[in-house]
Amino acid sequence: xxxxxxxxxxxxxxxxxxxxxxxxxxxxxxxxxxxxxxxxxxxxxxxxxxxxxxxxxxxxxxxxxxxxxxxxxxxxxxxxxxxxxxxxxxxxxxxxxxxxxxxxxxxxxxxxxxxxxxxxxxxxxxxxxxxxxxxxxxxxxxxxxxxxxxxxxxxxxxxxxxxxxxxxxxxxxxxxxxxxxxxxxxxxxxxxxxxxxxxxxxxxxxxxxxxxxxxxxxxxxxxxxxxxxxxxxxxxxxxxxxx
Length: 243
Description:
Helix content: 10-25%
Order of helices and strands: EEEEEEHEEEEEHEEHEEEHEEEE
Distance between the termini: 34 Å
Number of strands: 20
Number of helices: 4
Structural class: mainly beta
Strand content: 35-45%
Largest sheet: 12 strands, mixed
Oligomer: single chain
């Protein structure tokens, strides 16, 4: 089942999503007509794993980590699907990175393996891990307002192993991979991080980007597709063109 959130005349609703329609307790809504799609959850924190695809590690000349290598984006990083991404004035090197994302459904910590993790997950979504590559250190590069486009939905019934993904920039395929190429298994990663953090409902854990993340500029259309979930779409705009 796919879950989505939308801004409607009845307020923000969450419900089952099917082909542009959300069925919620408050009613039925058509995206683009009487509802605007929002990110499918409101994370307090994004826990983002890097260096998790061997091909990308080779491409970027990184060392292979012995344990998951992660960083954190704050709640203000959340950006909705379809909303324009405003290219920050303070960077000349904004990059995309299409990543699988897990969404936590209940407060939890110190999870013991895959079965424990499955019990606390709401489902799976897509993150675009935006990165201001010319800034120094990870926090400056990755933890800014709107740096985490998320969505379009949460798929509640998905095996995250062996699913295909693609990223297209203005129609050109830039990333083409499968989650089988991850170094650290998604369930293993969530359990590992839970030894250090208490997750809360809506928190997001992402699992790194395959090879070929790259620069984006105003006018670029970004489409990140993960099999079984859907496509996260945004367009990059210049600051002067933002509403």
